Amino acid sequence: MKRVVITGQGAITPLGNTAAEYWENIKAGNVGIAPIAKFDASETGITVAAEVKDFEPTLYMEKKATKRLDLFSQYGVAAAVQAVTDSQLDTEKIDVDRFGVMVSSGIGGMNTIQEQVIKMHDRGPKRVAPFFVPMAISNMAAGNIAMRVGAKGICTCIVTACASGNNAIGEAYRNIKHGYSDVILAGGAEATVCEIGISGFAALTALSEATDPLRASIPFDKERNGFVMGEGGGILVLEELEHALARGAKIYGEVVGYGSTSDAYHMTSPTPDGSGAGKAMQQAMAEAGITPEQVDYINAHGTSTPPNDGAETAAIKYAFGDQAYNIAISSTKSMTGHLLGAAGAVEAMACVGAIQDDFVPPTAGLEETSEDCDLDYVPKVGRAQKVNYALSNSMGFGGHNAVICFKKWEAK
């Protein structure tokens, strides 16, 4: 079996438009949530979101291309270009047939769908844009990234709602581990801060109606009342170890385990006993060959919805037993909001930062935990501590659970 390392990162997020800026803001506990600025949300009942700020797509693609890519694809391409640049990967010196892309999106081109349905309704079906379909379908972040960087290996998009980003990273890890690819760009991209996106999740009563950005996304807090919509893209360069060493690549960390399960329980709610996500954590640890006592940090799914946070707490106890009380846990969604299909990607970067800097990011805004949330969630302020192994949890509507295990890089 091959070892798989991380050699590049790229990010477009509510907390910065590079991986380095994103991580520094996460470490500092800064919150990227603010009043919705993209449209007039007054009739939705929702006030805040975690929007990407000052994004300039022409830094990463020609202006003409921006007219043919939905915003989620633009975020994905931008993050991928950053990641390839960061990795110093020279596509003229590698086998591009073994260079792949696994980049997910939970929903795809929602802005395009909204815009074109309105146009069809108002002006007739003949006015629908010819690029409607290739802009809207969820696989096109992956497809456009492959075209942009010249990756001719596996190119796919795993759609598992809010677990999509983690599933993409996990499947990319396995693909390299088993010898099918040398390098894969893995992660997710999402752009759903629009009228139909906010209205749809609001109708589910899934979104926070808080007006204070600092008290809107408050995972594990007794006053939590819904998640905050986020947007952006995150891409990791996953690479086979010997391939990375041969070209002198910088190594950020290692992927050592992956777990993926189904609750088979409910359309939108997790299993209350936590068994589904708990088993995914156990699978990730088993593949990594570690015990619960070796896990130093868990980046929780932590959406700030009442059902999720209690169920995830139960899942951690299911997987770790009494050791659950000794592990530092935090939800970076308290700062980024929920990036849906891209959440796992940017949260993987938080884990990479944690193991590199030996620093656990905080659950910003957590004032007082609820009765069903009684673990160590690192409230308000991050914590300097040794982090050798970190888990990243993601859970999606439909009962999808995906967990990645990261390890501090050590040359052996």
Automatic annotation (TrEMBL):
GO terms for biological process: fatty acid biosynthetic process. Pfam families: ketoacyl-synt (PF00109), Ketoacyl-synt_C (PF02801). One of its GO terms (cellular component) is cytosol. Keywords: Acyltransferase, Fatty acid biosynthesis, Fatty acid metabolism, Lipid biosynthesis, Lipid metabolism, Transferase. Its EC number is 2.3.1.179. PROSITE patterns: KS3_1 (PS00606), KS3_2 (PS52004). It catalyses: a fatty acyl-[ACP] + malonyl-[ACP] + H(+) = a 3-oxoacyl-[ACP] + holo-[ACP] + CO2; (9Z)-hexadecenoyl-[ACP] + malonyl-[ACP] + H(+) = 3-oxo-(11Z)-octadecenoyl-[ACP] + holo-[ACP] + CO2. Gene3D superfamilies: 3.40.47.10. Residues 1-408 form the Ketosynthase family 3 (KS3) domain. The active site is at 162 (for beta-ketoacyl synthase activity). It is an enzyme of class 2 (transferase). CDD domains: KAS_I_II. SUPFAM superfamilies: Thiolase-like (SSF53901). One of its GO terms (molecular function) is 3-oxoacyl-[acyl-carrier-protein] synthase activity. Pathway: Lipid metabolism; fatty acid biosynthesis. Involved in the type II fatty acid elongation cycle. Catalyzes the elongation of a wide range of acyl-ACP by the addition of two carbons from malonyl-ACP to an acyl acceptor. Can efficiently catalyze the conversion of palmitoleoyl-ACP (cis-hexadec-9-enoyl-ACP) to cis-vaccenoyl-ACP (cis-octadec-11-enoyl-ACP), an essential step in the thermal regulation of fatty acid composition. Belongs to the thiolase-like superfamily. Beta-ketoacyl-ACP synthases family. This is 3-oxoacyl-[acyl-carrier-protein] synthase 2. It comes from Vagococcus entomophilus.
